[in-house]
Write a structure and sequence with these properties.
single chain; 136 residues; mainly alpha; 0% strand; elongated
């Protein structure tokens, strides 16, 4: 089922990218979509960073991003989560630049990114809850 969902998402994203118009020709709806999706992504990114830290600290979770796993192993959780926060900031700045030219593409792709990062945060929360960690 997941494989089909991913293929459907990629097909929809390709369709949006193929039919993209310049920013001047796009309506206000795309800009509003981008702003809402960006807010959802920023919330999810912060939540993902916090819950990943708590899941790793509980001993039951792990970082799935292969970029940050060696950082955790070598220097610990704080530098890795700092780098993760910088990565999320870079993603938002990159999408801001894309939104100036193609707000519909930026909006719909940010919806997809938001779904992924919020799924990761929810999965981390489930791990933390299963351990009975106080405060969550």
């Amino acid at each position: 089922m997941r494989k089909h969902s991913l293929l459907l998402f990629v097909a929809a994203l390709a369709l949006v990218c193929a039919t993209a118009e310049p920013a001047a020709a796009q309506g206000r709806g795309c800009k509003i979509l981008y702003r809402v999706a960006k807010a959802s992504y920023v919330f999810g990114a912060a939540n993902d960073t916090i819950t990943t830290t708590a899941a790793i600290a509980s001993g039951q979770g792990r970082e799935l991003n292969p970029t940050f796993t060696p950082i955790i192993e070598k220097w610990g959780i704080v530098p890795a989560m700092s780098a993760k926060s910088m990565e999320h900031y870079g993603i938002v700045k990159m999408w801001d630049k894309l939104a100036t030219q193609h707000s519909c593409v930026a909006g719909w792709s940010m919806v997809g990114m938001s779904a992924v990062v919020n799924w990761a945060a929810a999965n981390n929360y489930k791990i933390i809850k299963a351990n009975g960690r106080p405060g969550f």
